[in-house]
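<backbone_tokenisation>
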Amino acid sequence: MRRCEKHYGAPLAKENTRLQIIGVLDLLGGRAVHARAGARDRYAPVQNAAGWPIDPGNAQTLAEIYTEVLGIQEIYAADLDAIRDQKPQDEVTKGLASLRAPLWLDAGIRSVDDARRAIDLGARRVIVGLETLASFEVLAHICTWVGRDRVAFSLDLRDGQPLVMDGARLDEARSPEEIAERAVVSGVSTLIVIDLARVGTGRGIDVDLVNRIHSAVPGLTLVAGGGVRGWDDLVQVAQAGCSAALVATALHDGGIGAAEISEAQKL
């Protein structure tokens, strides 16, 4: 622990804390793009990561930098076309699934068939996002048929407010905490807290919100995303009860490198 304090400042929450860093690829029109504040129509192709140049938007190269250069052990692909109910980017997804790092796939999962299709493409874990969820009944069916350990529920927010699909039937669950509790009742064992307004902006994680979610559903595996900038943010999300963090921009610009990833994973 002393070595961690010397190089990175504050330690993680306790001696046996392990924070998994999951490398994120946002996919749009077949290219890896730099997500910023949820303004998807303005996302530009990623051109470098960790000091390595990339053929603009080459998702396979970016994923290989994550896994082979930075030591990332799991990757997360957000198929923004599929999320917007457009043609999914299956060939890119298959390429990412061929890597040694298990793939978490966020591809606008709206049904059991969608979830099974994601697994057929090679996803180790499927993401069911609040912004494309019609009802908690659908979420429960997916958890039952796919297996709760292969499903993660993404609590999608914008400026702290739940991002709910038009026409969704979410009963009386309206606050982030209530939605998290209903997701648990539906069978979810892993929950992602992500505020799209913070993605790629350097604003940092809303740690207070993460703490509230952890208090509301303390037995859940919790993942933080959207705004992680560097080591101090990793410390904060670990102390808030998270087991993993989704990271993209900080991997691209060097805010988080191989040393930090290694240190977080072995504490």
About this structure: The chain has one domain: 2-266. Residues 95 and 257 are 24 Å apart (CA to CA). The radius of gyration is 17 Å.
